[in-house]
């Protein structure tokens, strides 16, 4: 039974990654793949990279034991027969992107070369059969992509590689987020595809390898995953999303990856929008990511990671709830159970409210400007240090007390 296959694969991937991560660190020191403290990074001391090689080893070993050579998928509308995904070409794509990332960690490849490597890995996955040929969109129905499905899938996979890469900036952040996302995808894939879902096993393997690496990457990190790991995890989550959710006839299929991966999606979206606003290249490094902005307002690395873990877990939980809360009558498509629909709506509203609040907190610089104006109107002698202290206190307590303006005289 693949439920137990997923559990065993998860445990083996965790153990292999945990055992091999120190060896990856030694290799990184030998080849000079070291992250040094910089204005854009949060590393406080020279730290070896290449941790992604241990993640890769955990994935390959566990997948080789518990993944079938051929993964059958649901037949999409318009297909004459169900399509399949060949596991080993997908894993070869994983090896390819990890090796490209390792070279980049060691010698710092140019952005164009990295992009070409990402495209090559994505093409390997699509050649293996991981192709989005269409999507079932709620209230619209099935939208077929017969001529552009392969190209759209390549764009999707390359985007996921870069999104995870962009989010890798705090000890334990990317690995933890990917572990949560992998576990959520595994549960959802089992729910959509049943107990024989190979996509669920691959998702469990991804989560396990991430957790195994996390033993050495939690604050204070002894090693970073580097582009080796971030590109690899983005690739694997992208493939899992295609074969475990997007390439199904479930009406909720599109919402699953958008919710599970919402935090890295939003982080990248905000950052790229900022860079375009200030006429910078989208791939230029800067200090505008969520984790940078939280650090800038006084959050410790542990608190930053805890907040972003909680946010990721909450949105992944919403995606899982969409599968398990019985708000629809399965025997009567298009009909909804009123009570459970209210419960599901409440879950969505709470998640949206929490997300808006957190984004508001992360827009701290705008809040700081407002607070500075209010404080200086109340007391023109207010110092910058007092303003920063007030903002940090508000964030720590969650109490954004309004500042009373002085009453006009006579």
Task: Produce a short descriptive summary.
This protein is mainly alpha-helical and 410 residues long. It contains 15 helices and six strands.
Account of the 3D structure:
By secondary structure, the chain is mainly alpha-helical. The protein is built from 15 helices and six strands. A two-stranded antiparallel sheet has the order 1-2. The protein has a two-stranded antiparallel sheet with strand order 3-4. The longest helix has 30 residues, at 2-31.
The number of helical segments is 15
Low-confidence stretches: 398-410
The helix-and-strand class reads mainly alpha
Share in helix? 55-70%
Q: What average pLDDT do the residues reach?
A: 83
The tally of beta strands, per DSSP, is 6
Strand content: under 5%
Using the alpha-carbon principal axes, give the shape. globular
Largest sheet: 2 strands, antiparallel
Element-by-element helix/strand order: HEEHEEHHEEHHHHHHHHHHH
- Radius of gyration based on Cα positions: 23 Å
The termini sit apart by: 82 Å
Strand order of the largest sheet: 1-2
